[in-house]
Amino acid sequence: MSHKPGLKRDLAAERAARKAATQQARLVPQGLPTARPDQLMPSPENGRKELHKIDELANTLRTDGMNTAMTVIPPDIFIELYPRHKEAVEARVAEGVLFVVHHGHRRLAAAVKAGLTEVPILVRRDVPSLRIAAIQENLQRMGLNPIEEAEEFQGALDEVDDTGKRLSQRELSKRVGCSQTYVSHRVALLRLIPSLQQAVIDHWLKEQQLLEVPERDSDANARLLLPVRDAAVTYSRLSVDMQEAFVRGELSPAQATTVSKLPTDQQAIPAAGNESDCAAIASAGPETPAPLPEPRASEPQASTVSTSTNQHQTHASAPRLRQPTSNTPTKSATAPTPTAASAPAVRAVEEPRGVIVVRSVEDLALNILELLTEVEVEQLKEHLSY
What we know:
chromosome partition, Chromosome_partition/occlusion, Arc Repressor Mutant, subunit A, mainly alpha, 5-stranded mixed β-sheet, ParB N-terminal domain-containing protein, ParB_N, ParB/Sulfiredoxin_sf
């Protein structure tokens, strides 16, 4: 009796194995030697004691693979340079280790977490000083400045895949291994005028210790430095005229914060008489509390509740309530209904979280990230997914 082709063969398992092999080959650059992650050991001389953002990098490796080969050293050469680690290295060699990692410890940890079966390597045999080479590699790794990152992010968001779909900021952040806020802040920098973009670059250069800024400088010749978050959250929301006014010194930082909350067609330099009002809006404190509204006629008048410390701790998760000041008239629970001549009872109202001026979906997202905590943002995401 003839057998049918494929009899007793698990064709589905074979197809899955071929697909997995093809996927692994796609994740590894072609033409470079490779090794299994378990054939590599971290260098005992690695200066980086703690590896950060391994989960984010592992997610990137699962989708896009490892684009940069790890530099590795044969164990015998490593032992010649650092004989004090001979026992530890030889023990790992007995377990199957073929190379000691020189550059790429974070990539190795992420590759193990991502489940990669092969990683690209670059074998180096002539290393005068591992420690100096590691210092050179870290110090000479010059990253993109915030504006260059913004242009790269925007270019990636504008790309269209084979299905005609563009990446969202959330999808892009997962692909590159950063937060969505990081992407949105960088993209917002593209709305700045060139002089403010240069101020962001100068601030970044100063943080990288690549730009010397005198501690004491005259106001006329002072270099404008602008942190990324301030530039993205406040100054990118200003109109071009208001940004230019800020560069000229006609708009103070406090005024810029207030004006940025208005629609661009309503933004203007505050008049001299309104400067105090702007300052009050920008830095309102508990010393000048806003007057509480009187209860409407259709609403029952509630007696004032005195909140004790224990009650406040019990209801810490409840909405924040504005409490009456010591000058606010109160009445006891047994007091008669007040007459027209007496002061009306004060009803506890929720503390406003802020006013959001919606000009675009991106501005709405940035405002929400400012006003809400991380827990509240996650709760909002759950509601929006319904």
